């Protein structure tokens, strides 16, 4: 009988990794309660000497946090719902329907995942600004004051479809037995009803996984939101507003306020992950992703 190995080394490694991962977050939280003079001090301390709760009040006032939070939440929820809809529909079509060119279309979708996202920002920007009959534009996309970029649609529409989301949904739906779908077709159900009432409920775990990915990516996205902010400053999101405050004012005075804003910006992401954690783990396992 082989002697059992002592697992304390594994536990120590896991504990050390956990501390290294959690420490920056704890530093952000405690820094949000420090005064400006204490934060600028050369002597570092994790815990504040005096908890300054006014930082959160000032963050709401100087960062216009209510407007930034509303824009970020509206954008992230809208993009997440649109991506879930388009990805599940496209995934079902590519997984279960037969038509010429299906594999070519799927390979083209996979190819879009190989390019960095910023390569599409310039063409997307021109399409958004010169979108026909939007923001005062004429039929040819001229003469307006920003097109879709002047409204919330400019933050949402370019991200309504996700190549990764389509790939993830296709891989999951391919694992659903064809017998269920064939039985529904024999009973006279049309494809849309089969998708909505049969296939979609089975994809709840992977939908939750995709929802977490898209919500976090949309919430943290910065470059495109900054471009839209250049057209309409009322469209600023939390990452843009916090970065603008950090860039234009004295960081030694505003850094605790920035930390308070970052703490508030982190709360929705943590809540989304906590609420969907079980489905997330199940979806990752069932989709074959490691």
UniProtKB/TrEMBL annotation:
Cross-referenced SUPFAM superfamilies: MetI-like
Recorded coiled-coil stretches: none
Keywords for this protein: Cell membrane, Membrane, Transmembrane, Transmembrane helix, Transport
Membrane-traversing stretches: 7-26, 73-95, 104-127, 147-173, 194-216, 257-276
Domain ABC transmembrane type-1 stretches: 69-276
Entry annotated with the keyword Transport: yes
Subcellular localization(s) per the UniProt record: Cell membrane
Keyword Nucleotide-binding: no
Membrane topology: Multi-pass membrane protein
Family assignment from sequence similarity: Belongs to the binding-protein-dependent transport system permease family.
PANTHER family per record: ABC TRANSPORTER PERMEASE PROTEIN MG189-RELATED, ABC TRANSPORTER PERMEASE PROTEIN MG189-RELATED-RELATED
Protein name (record): ABC transporter permease
Organism of provenance: Gordoniibacillus kamchatkensis
């Amino acid at each position: 009988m082989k002697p059992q190995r002592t697992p304390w080394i594994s536990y120590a490694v896991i504990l050390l990794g956990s501390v290294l991962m959690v420490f920056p977050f704890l530093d952000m939280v405690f820094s949000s309660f420090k005064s400006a003079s204490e934060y600028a001090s050369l002597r570092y301390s994790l815990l504040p000497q005096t908890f300054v709760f006014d930082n959160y009040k000032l963050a709401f006032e100087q960062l216009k946090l209510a407007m930034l939070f509303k824009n970020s939440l509206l954008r992230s929820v809208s993009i997440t719902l649109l991506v879930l809809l388009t990805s599940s529909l496209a995934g079902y079509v590519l997984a279960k329907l037969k038509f010429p060119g299906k594999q070519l279309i799927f390979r083209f979708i996979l190819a879009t995942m190989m390019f960095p996202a910023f390569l599409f920002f310039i063409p997307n920007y021109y399409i958004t600004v010169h979108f026909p009959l939007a923001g005062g534009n004429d039929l040819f996309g001229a003469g307006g004051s920003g097109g879709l970029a002047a409204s919330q649609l400019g933050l949402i529409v370019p991200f309504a479809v996700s190549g990764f989301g389509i790939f993830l949904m296709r891989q999951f739906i391919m694992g659903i037995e064809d017998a269920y779908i064939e039985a529904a077709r024999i009973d006279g159900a049309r494809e849309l009803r089969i998708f909505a009432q049969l296939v979609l409920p089975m994809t709840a775990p992977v939908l939750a996984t995709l929802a977490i990915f898209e919500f976090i990516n949309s919430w943290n996205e910065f470059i495109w939101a900054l471009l839209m902010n250049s057209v309409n400053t009322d469209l600023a999101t939390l990452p843009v507003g916090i970065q603008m405050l950090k860039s234009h004012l004295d960081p030694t005075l505003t850094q605790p306020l920035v930390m308070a804003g970052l703490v508030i910006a982190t709360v929705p992401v943590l809540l989304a992950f906590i609420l969907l954690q079980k489905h997330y783990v199940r979806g990752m396992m069932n989709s074959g992703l490691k």
